[in-house]
Amino acid sequence: MQIHFVLLISRQGKVRLTKWYNPYPQKERSKVIKEVSTLVLTRGPKMCNFVDWHGYRVVYKRYASLYFCMCIDAADNELETLQIIHHFVEILDRYFGNVCELDLIFNFHKAYFILDEVLIAGELQESNKKAVLRLITTQDNLVEAAKEEASSLRNIIAQATK
Amino acid sequence: MDLAINPFSSGTRLRDMIRAIRACKTAAEERAVVRRECAAIRAAISEGDQDYRHRNMAKLMFIHMLGYPTHFGQMECLKLIAAAGFPEKRIGYLGLMLLLDERQEVLMLVTNSLKQDLNHSNQFIVGLALCALGNICSAEMARDLSPEVERLLQSREPNTKKKAALCSIRIVRKVPDLAENFMGSAVSLLKEKHHGVLISAVQLCAELCKASKEALEYLRKNCLDGLVRILRDVSNSSYAPEYDIAGITDPFLHIRVLKLMRILGQGDADCSEFVNDILAQVATKTESNKNAGNAILYECVETIMGIEATSGLRVLAINILGRFLSNRDNNIRYVALNMLMKAMEVDTQAVQRHRATILECVKDADVSIRKRALELVYLLVNDANAKSLTKELVDYLEVSDQDFKDDLTAKICSIVEKFSQDKLWYLDQMFKVLSLAGNYVKDDVWHALIVLISNASELQGYSVRSLYKALLACGEQESLVRVAVWCTGEYGEMLVNNVGMLDIEEPITVTESDAVDAVEVSLKRYSADVTTRAMCLVSLLKLSSRFPPTSERIKEIVAQNKGNTVLELQQRSIEFNSIIQRHQSIKSSLLERMPVIDEASYLAKRAASTQATISSDKLAAAATPGSSLKLPNGVAKPPPAPLADLLDLSSDDAPATTSAPTTAPNDFLQDLLGIGLTDSSTAGGAPSASTDILMDLLSIGSSPVQNGPPTVSNFSLPGQAETKVAPVTPQVVDLLDGLSSSTSLSDENTAYPPITAFQSAALKITFNFKKQSGKPQETTIHASFTNLTSNTFTDFIFQAAVPKFIQLRLDPASSNTLPASGNDSVTQSLSVTNNQHGQKPLAMRIRITYKVNGEDRLEQGQINNFPAGL
User: How many domains does chain A have?
Assistant: First the structure.
């Protein structure tokens, strides 16, 4: 059932997001990224979205210049994983408004925050896109509020010490 | 929004750093930018800078994603998490999940902060902590924090509940013992309305079932009602925009409930019956024109196959798969092939009906689909369809991609070997495979083919002629060349004289010199490897005896290799040249056809050697010095190159038919070639595990037919062998010239001196040797045990182990009590058969256990001082 890791790779093979739900040591991670990206990037456009990889299955889908990859057990439901990828992409799209690769580069942390509202422990957390977006926005607002408070505090201190 | 835009800030903003990195044109430039940034971050860390801590953390995460080391930032994560504010915690937890994994000790330090945050009044801070715990917690953390998570399952916030449920999954995965603590809450969560909570709860239930039998039973009793209700609700629900995907309400929930039903219904008839109706409803009602619907159908089929479903339901499931298989979408076909593989166990006949479609999938453009389909076809093969399926696969072999040929060839060979009731069919298929993909055929496969040909005397003529034709057409296929050349050497006259024509065959005209031509071409082909060339040389040598008129020409071809830079080939050429030139008298008997290779014992050895390779791999992995499993030295040597063994085969075969006087020289040649073996294993190409198989294959024939006296033992001394390697030519000549004198040495009662095999403070073992005439490989050893102490040994057991090429039989000892200071009071006899007699000396490892005054004693040793020639 579990998703083992999530990878976002650009067409040039650059890593845009990695999320590991199993303990892979650092060295292993770079090896996995290298293997999976060569496997996925070399496949033709009309081929199916699944590749066998060391007894696991990598489900991938290309959106514009980005490949979204998720690794699952061979016995799991590939079609559903494809749907989860699409679910995640749709949420990104609504959050950023026509998401593009640059959004995910400069706001990579946002992409992670969203992923953390979609998956925990490699399992699906929320099937409602709007619910995810609501949660993210609320938390973004919390950050904004804290920042404003901090800057107003700083102004008060600055004025007091003038 | 940017992280902390501050006009007074030193250092760059996150956005600027990313821009700078993206602007780099070379990897070196990028490294420079990253190094500069890392230096600034390190400086900020050591100054204890607080204002930019979370911006630095964000930068570090980006740098980490690029693959640079960021371990120095790990402690900063902890500081951020320990801070009071939500923004710091948010970025701190993200850093924790990204930069650390559960193996790092730093993680232990975070347990306390996590505990505080799990008890925080702000649900979003609780959410952050749950998410981090769910993604990276270790077994220790799981134990420590499990009570907090259990409590949070009762929270009022759906957001907290669903996160706590998923976090529990991780906890149960890490510590299955905790499963029972979660059973009650998991079931009560199934009554919720919120889909996020439902999905998480269903997944938690599935995990609990995996972790504990008790939980499985509990859930079977308590949650089936709820599951059926959930599934009915979502599948009957009217349009729900929040959850709708392609007209289906929440396919994710569908799928997860179906999966849990499978786990609960597996092997449980009551549960299976309970879900029967709802499964039938899902299977018939779900729309299959979009991926989401197909994902549900796929899961539903899998559940029907997994539980004790009614036969009607199974038919329904197989029909869905049939529809999938004819779908144009590659993804759907892929999962259909996958499912059919599982359906094979349930209903083979139903899958067989789709054979034609599946076979088409083997030829698909997509390698993922091809692989699935090939595996499925392999399972589908039975006696009835083996021939037609093999033909399809072989036909496809011709046009398939290069990188798919490997898999395809292996599968075809395996099918052909498994279903070959008809030898002619087997040969035909193998010849086709060799011609089309000989470069992909594994060694053991063509070895088996040779064994079969050697056994099928009525088909040898047909084989050699077919192979000859194939060789002319497809001379670049390595293993085809090997088999063809071997057969030409052995059965050359059948090729030329059309012996044993079958009805189906067209007669061909091959002259003696045509046959030699073919072998010569193979020998000189630029891409032939050492093994193939060596086989060509042997074949030529044999042809020189089959076709005397070509002898002179063969001598020339062989002589051309006298200067070969590969030592093995050079030495062979020189030796063969000398045989052709100077030893006409022994040549014909020397080069007779090989004796029939015993098929049964070959297959047994093949199976054993694959096993041995596996077990020795395991050994190598787990070997510790001094472990009792460690093999004696003799085995540690690299396996000899296959060539030498091939050769000594051709010498071994002679005694089968010839009379006593000629056996001696043959033995002699064997040792001569034994010399070649010592250097070929060091100078020859990398010996692989597969050579071992060949070695076995080819040495089978030798053991039963060897009946010459052990006259040549002197020449097999390793020391001498080494000295003879360098100046090859004169030595070989000498050795052969010395034949007559060495035959006179023939001595049936060669006495071997007794040896002290083992001596310790307490025990002495002496070995006396006896050999039966005519069986040089067999030695009977009489072991005598002497107790050197003044105490009696009881429960005395002597054990011995030998390398693989030696067989050992231990007879019972005369007694298991060794009296004090007794002299040779206990004896035991051992029979040893050295299958590589003359090439490798005996070696033995021994282990003696006994009791002195009831105390266990153990002694071990290795015997390397056996007299030469055993």
Answer: 1
